[in-house]
Design goal:
The protein is of the alpha+beta class. It has seven helices and 20 strands. The strands form five sheets. Strands 10, 13, 16, 17, 18, 19 and 20 form a seven-stranded mixed beta sheet that branches. The chain has a five-stranded antiparallel beta sheet with strand order 7-2-4-5-9, with no helix packed on it. α1 runs parallel beside α2, α5 crosses α6 and α5 packs across α7.
């Protein structure tokens, strides 16, 4: 019996990906838990495990193929008796390696095969309802539910005694609820942008670089953000000489440990503390209300080949400067290598984008939903400043806060920037 291995969904929102590399070839024997392929999404490259056992009959999609849709057959596995819970010929056969996994994914227990129907003369045992939190679900079903953002308490199990198993979760993902009949006519699809030739640029006068998954996703998300989110900027100039002096003292104290703190690391900490002081600025808009976040999870914009990614320093307000410096350096390195785990770049409550190292004096960024704001940081440079009636020279940076007006109005944004100014002027407040 043959089993088709399908392109897996490595995140709940993934629609397609690039089959970057096969780690097996036709004729190889694979076991459950063997890593057999590398899949590239728009943000990261992830290893994928086999779930079924057998011999690789054929590779249906060559490595390097882009825009492979989720659930497209990519290989065929032949074996004696694939597990019924894998779905037979339409089975799936692949599992993304979970970020916290310590070893191969265990197969579903044999006890999860469908229970034979009771005879008419024998009473059928009662089927308990799934327990809250998924205690009545198999480990694999719980993991699939987490990936698909499925509430297990609302899933009816088809396994023994009502246990939730893999096919119950896959059935939900494969059978979406029917959409209601629209009352009004659907608006027309926006017209495609005109070709360069129609705008007077002759063919052959340019090189066309195809869009990869990351650039396509960035274009779509930021277009949606700029069009759909009512936003406005707030700009201030900050004198950072005290912050720079504090950084020099901190790095001197850390010299023996090999750690080194950058000005950007100190700004991340400053932003996180300011968000805790002004919690209304650490918020997201939802249709049901405004979400006020418990922690300042600071996303840091990192330029990578082909686009931009924002790895996250979680609960930055609770961490010391040395730890923030270590985390941001590690996250940036792995971001450029496309080795981040999904939970390391998905989410976040606020973004800091710094172009000061490129000499950019000031700029305004586009909000990264569902966050309520993003802070754009310009270059630190010597500028003339007024001290009373006298002119002096100070190191100044320009900051622009772009706010989602549905969440953060002008007064909230101004209070946040005032808190930021106060702590930059007195860096010891970061240690309080």
């Amino acid at each position: 019996m043959s089993v088709d291995i399908l392109m897996p969904a490595l995140s709940p929102t993934m629609e397609e990906g690039t089959l970057a590399k096969w780690l097996v070839k036709a004729g190889d024997t694979v076991k459950s838990g063997d890593v057999i392929a590398e899949i590239e999404t728009d943000k990261a490259t992830m290893e994928v495990e086999a779930v079924d056992e057998g011999v690789v009959e054929s590779l249906l999609v060559p490595e390097g193929t882009e825009e492979v849709k989720v659930n497209t057959p990519i290989a065929r596995l032949s074996g004696e008796s694939p597990s019924p819970s894998r779905g037979g010929a339409g089975g799936g056969g692949l599992e993304p390696v979970p970020p916290t996994a310590q070893g191969p994914t265990p197969p579903e227990p044999a006890a999860e095969a469908p229970t034979p129907a009771p005879s008419p003369t024998s009473p059928r045992p009662p089927t308990p309802s799934p327990q809250a939190g998924g205690e009545s679900a198999s480990p694999l079903a719980r993991r699939l539910a987490k990936l698909a953002n499925v509430d297990l308490s609302e899933v009816k199990g088809s396994g023994p005694h009502g246990r939730i198993i893999r096919r119950d979760i896959e059935g939900l993902r494969a059978t979406p609820a029917a959409a209601p009949t629209p009352v009004a006519s659907v608006p027309p699809t926006p017209a495609a942008p005109p070709s360069l030739e129609s705008l007077g640029i002759p063919p052959g006068s340019y090189d066309l670089v195809p869009l990869d998954g990351m650039r396509r996703t960035v274009a779509r998300r930021l277009t949606d953000s700029f069009r759909d989110i009512p936003h406005f900027p707030l700009s201030i100039d900050l004198e950072v000489d005290a912050l720079i002096a504090a950084r020099a003292q901190i790095n001197a104290a850390l010299e023996k440990t090999g750690a080194k703190v950058s000005l950007n690391d100190m700004l991340i900490k400053t932003v996180a503390v300011a968000l805790k002081r002004i919690p209304e600025a650490n918020a997201s808009y939802t249709p049901d209300g405004i979400a006020l976040h418990h922690h300042a999870d600071i996303a840091v914009a990192v330029a990578v080949e082909g686009g931009l990614i924002t790895p996250i320093v979680r609960a930055a307000e609770t961490k010391g400067l040395a730890q923030i410096a270590s985390e941001t350096r590690d996250l940036a390195e792995r971001a450029r290598a496309r080795k981040l785990k999904p939970e390391e770049f998905q989410g976040g409550t606020f973004t800091v984008s710094n172009l000061g190292m490129f000499g950019i004096r000031s700029f305004s960024s586009i909000i990264n939903p569902p966050q309520g704001a993003i802070l754009s940081v310009g270059a630190a440079e010597k500028r003339p400043v007024a001290r009373g009636d006298e002119l002096a020279v100070a190191t100044v940076i320009s900051l622009t806060l772009t706010c989602d007006h549905r969440v953060i109005d002008g007064a909230i944004g101004a209070r946040f920037l005032a808190a930021l100014r106060e702590m930059v002027a007195e860096p010891l407040m970061l240690l309080a």
